[in-house]
Amino acid sequence: MGRNKHIKYEWAEALNNVVQHTKPDFGQQKGLWNKKQFLNNNPIVLELGCGRGEYTNGLAKIFIDKNFIGVDIKGDRLAAAGVVAQRENLQNVAYLRIMMQFIDVFFEENEVDEIWLTFPDPRGKDRDEKKRLTHPHFLNKYKKVLKPDGILHLKTDSAPFFDYSLDSLPANKFEIIASTNDLYQSTWNKDHFGIKTRFEKIFYEKGFPINYLRAVNKKEV
User: I need a surface site. Which of 124, 179, 187, 216 has the fewest CB within 10 A?
Assistant: First the structure.
C-alpha cells in the first residue's frame, strides 16, 4: 500500500462522517441514518459509486435541507471526500464504505428519497451485464430502499450503457420522466448547477456528450 493511501485510511478512521467496517457502530445505521448520523428528519439522497465525493459534496452545499450519503468501496477516496466535507463544514454529508450489492442491507425499506448514479462503470462486455448498476439485480435493491415515487438519476458518457438503462428501468417499474443524449444542450442542464465529477470534467473537455435520465420509482405501496 502506498504511503498516501495509508494516510487516507487513517483519515477515514478519524472522521465522524465516514462509516466503514473498522468502526464499532458499522451496520447499526439501517433505518436510523437521520437519527444517528444527521440528527434531523430531512430527505436522504444517495450517490452510488461516489468516488472522491465531488458530486455528493457539491449537492450538499446547494441543498442544505437534504442529507447526502456517498457510497463507494474505495476507502482512500471516501477519506478524501470526508476531509473536504469536514473542512467545508458540511453537516448534511456522510460517506459509507460498502459494495453496491449490499445497499439494501444498510438502508431500510423506503428510507431513501433519491439515488444518483454518476458515471458508473458501463461494464460493456456481455458477460459483465449483471455488474451494471442498472441491471435488474441492482434496480430491485434501489426499488426497495427508495420511497414510492422516489427519484433515480443517471449520468453517463456511455451511449450503449445509457440505451441499456433506457430499456431496463421501465422493465423494472421505473417511469422515465426525463431523458437526453446531450445534457449540456438540454433544458435539464440547469438542474445540475454546474457540478461535475472528476470523470465528467475529463469527458466534457474531450467534447463527449453526457447522457442523463431521471426516473420515478413506481412500486406498489
Answer: 187
